[in-house]
Amino acid sequence: MARISRKHTAVLSDLDSRQIKIAVYVRLSNEDNGGRGKDSISNQLELLLAFAEKIESAEIVETYVDNGWSGTDFARPQWERMLDDVKNQKINCIIVKDLSRLARNYLEAGDYLEKIFPFMGVRFIAVNDYYDSANELFPEKDLITEFKNLANDYYSRDISQKVMSAFQSKKERGEYIGSQPPYGYLLKDGRFVIDEPAAAVVRRIYAMKAGGVSFYEIARILNREGVMSPSRYAAEQGRKKYKESSHVLWQPQAVSRILYNQVYTGDLILGKYNKSIYSSEKQGKRGEEGWQIISNAHEAIIERPLFLKMQDMRERNKKVWRDRQGNDAYKNVLEGILVCGICGRPMRRNKDVRNGKARYYFYCDSARNYAEATCSTSSIVDYKIYELVMKQIRMQMDLAIEVQPFLEQMKKSSSYIGQCRQKIRQLEQIKKELDRYIYLKTSIYEDMKQGILTKGEFLTAKEKYTMQIQELETEMKREEEEIAAFDQCVHSENKWLKAFLKFRDATELTRKLAVELLEKVEIYEDKRIHIRFKFRSEYEYLMSQIMSCEQGESHYVESVRG
Description:
15% strand, 18 helices, 562 residues, alpha/beta, 5-stranded mixed β-sheet, single chain, 3-stranded mixed β-sheet
């Protein structure tokens, strides 16, 4: 690992002369001895707090504990909170037990030690590895650090390979490698055994569906009779994963999952998902052709012919559903945009054929498909929605057409010219002030060398000027963005204006028009709709500038008359 540059050493030197504000960071993954032994959270904290108290001019500001988080990446809640505190200058020194608590990924750990921490002015100490980035508490040691990081990286990869190998052996023996069995079964010694109370419910669900009862009606019946949902049943059995699910009711989706799960025929399905333990990279759900199916691995709850009957019904239902969505020539142009104003769920569209004539209507997905939904938004014919939406879009288009020539006049007005000059003057003033503070900051070092300033006065002034420069840079950026937005606004580049003028000749609602102009359309029980257009902030900004210019112009005329 390369040595820290002189520039970074200077930063740490400045840091050391100020009070050291310490963050104690501890991490423990699920694989680290199950939280026992020398790497336990309590042992790490005890070691680090005792060590930190011995550092002169140091204050322990905060402790950050990531319990149960892997060291293979930095997506950890307490780590991210700690970095936010670094950015807010709440802390300037991080202490860990050893480098493996920082990370087990060689490359990313090296980036933090060599680049990120020095850039942020953060001192980093790994107690048991005798590493101190300021080289005060321990001697400098680059190679040892590099090889330790490399060993940690190798350790994570090795553990991942061993665990995956163990999983594969269990698969080959027909053992289940998950932690939670499906509803209707218990998990004993890696195999499913029937949980009779839940299995009786599974059999009843299959019987009701075979008798023609819908998913929605099955869920409603089970809820009415007080039958516990799978999540609620698991919570009652004491499974921690479901401890917050005691209120969950039966839903049509849960009924569907049971009816289409091959596990109830006695088959064990493995390898549905592919995930690397080392990188935590989930590659998503595999296609059915990639699953590993072990037939008759456990006792069946449902006979195979009945399960296959359910799958035939599923395919027929899919065909009916696709037919109800309409052909390619008549797509739902508001798909994903039209929602129920009460529950927020998407409004679905179906086809209804009466007397040989097809009619399409929207309905609330929640009101129809959720057993205990409070939403009662009724269905409405699709063309009525399309007409109402297009009418509102047309009003926006007409406003855009009316605004366009007014902008051309505004660019020639004295008020607009005055506003432009004022904004430019403000920006130039900020730049001058920024240049002045940059000069002051660079000159105080020479003052210290010549004895005009003490080191303490130098550091105080440096911190003051740095903060002032940061504030001015923020103010300058904000002013530049304001000028750019103002300039864009009056030169027909305003996004709202540009978008609605683009469709000025449109006479009917199309998918392209809806996607580009509409953010969301909400419909309520009384057939009232509320439309959220895109580019609302751009529209509001444009209107405010127009009003400002109109007021400025009237003041200018009055002053001339006076």
